[in-house]
Amino acid sequence: MSQWIHGLHAVLEAIERSPGRVTRVVVARGMEEGRLRPLLAAARRAGITVQREPAAALDRLGEKGAVHQGVLALLAAAPYDDPDDLIASAPAPALFVVLDGVEDPHNLGAVVRSAAAAGAHALFLPEHHSAGLSAGAVKASAGTALRFPVAKVGNLATFLGRLKEKGVWVIGLDTEGTPLWSGFDLKQPVALVLGGEGKGLRRLTRERCDLVLSIPLARGVESLNVSVAAGIALYEVVRQRAKT
Q: In this structure, are strands 169-173 and 211-213 parallel, antiparallel, or unpaired?
């Protein structure tokens, strides 16, 4: 299914990274030409026609309530990657991110952006009870979701078992975990597993983890946003591996 993505940066990223998926670009009449210049140049290089429409037309076309900044693009649906292919092709030591029930597309997009920035090799989502790569997720990732490997898996617990069979340490993150997030050798192949908003890791997911690490919180603070927790853990991996 095709989808609209919103915002100048996300649309420019789509044109530059996935021009074959961009089927239509629409910009609001009267937008400052200087702001549009990089986008128009990229569209011209890719052979994509840019339509000019009243701002009200963009409000109707895009996702309800989305802030489009006067720029929209219609993308053909992207197939998710094959999880087994991603595991097999990851260079050593592998670094994966697994999300357990993250339902907010903005959180998903932010985690994708952090994972890509930290050099992770792929991100895995359950097929059910999870956000997908919607327009909101693409925008929150600043377009990174258009080029970062993401796969869906049917049964998350079974998938975590497959990762273990491949020699990947399955490391959960939770406020009640031990030891601290920095207390494990993350230079090994690892998959960081983070739970959904409010609920955290589900019981079965937690039981499949080799270890559950915690990020300490000040008194009175119950949890971190999942994208913040992901960023902290990912950059602990970067820090440790930089020493090797």
A: parallel
